[in-house]
Design a protein that fits this description.
The chain is mainly alpha-helical and 68 residues long. The protein has one domain. The protein has four helices and two strands; from the N terminus they run E-E-H-H-H-H. The radius of gyration is 17 Å and the shape is elongated. This is Knotted carbamoyltransferase YgeW. It comes from Clostridium perfringens.
Length: 68
């Protein structure tokens, strides 16, 4: 699981220093595997009445996702 607070990234003083987090980033992401997608899907399904309709509308718009 990811650390809650990363020093210099998510807060001033965290559980882990940013350099340590960067050093173990790839192994951490490999360990997490598909879990973030499952969690996101569960959140989406719990908040939307008709998920199929919403997903179809999103697909029809053909808009690129914007990541920040």
């Amino acid at each position: 699981c990811l650390p809650a607070d990363i020093t210099g990234v998510s807060c001033e003083t965290g559980e882990v220093d940013a350099s340590v987090f960067d050093r173990y980033r790839k192994p951490l992401y490999k360990e997490a595997s598909y879990k973030p997608y499952v969690i996101a899907a569960m959140i989406f399904l719990s908040k939307v009445k008709n998920p199929q309709e919403i997903l179809e509308k999103l697909e029809e718009t053909h808009k690129d996702r914007q990541l920040k």
